Amino acid sequence: MMTTDTGKCCYQTKTNFDKLLISILAAFNVASFVYSVNLKNALYALSSLASLALVFLPCFFEYFFSLRISSDLKIIYWFLAVGGPVLGNVYRFYHYIRPWDKILHMLSGFLAAAFGYALPDFLLKEPPGKAFKCFFAVSLSIAIGGLWEIYEYIVDVFFRLDLQNDTVITGFSSYLLGDAPGTIGSIENIQTVSINGEPLEEGYIDIGLIDTMKDMIQCLIGSILCAVTALLQKPGSRFATIRAV
Hints:
about 240 residues, two-stranded antiparallel sheet, about 65% helix
């Protein structure tokens, strides 16, 4: 009986912490929305509202689907929900902190893998072993990462944005530079490129490919970290878990 009471007390403490954190994040998003309106920036305002809605999503799933999401996963999710739309866009962390985008992609890979690891337990009558669940978790995470990169590409093409951040490179190899069909040519030490008569200093702009591949690699790293965490967990562990009530 003491164990049950302790468990209830522990869960109540976590619930109170979640409520406090949600309140803080909601207030921050509202303040960011007001700030965006003052800047007269519609994209920033929409980002703040989207982040505000995303903050409440874990509570929605826990309540309507009778789930318990471990606190560590919810904290990672909330970091992503605010770190991308608000901190990244509104406060320009993407531009001021160079690894910010890569950190978010790695954490999103970890979070998607955690969801993938738990999913077979809800879909199958007899849950499979850890090895299958880890393989499925990594595969699902990479698939979600790939869909996200397709979304970024489509938005960039149709709305002329730069979600797939361009990279300045000083050398590359291509079949188009070869002296004969099937041979590869290279350009090294690029210092200046001329575009419509205007010089572009420092190098050649790669329009998204390098950023896309780096994002996918970070997603893969995050998913593998989640799979290793799951493999090393002891029975009954509640770290990085999604479970039915």
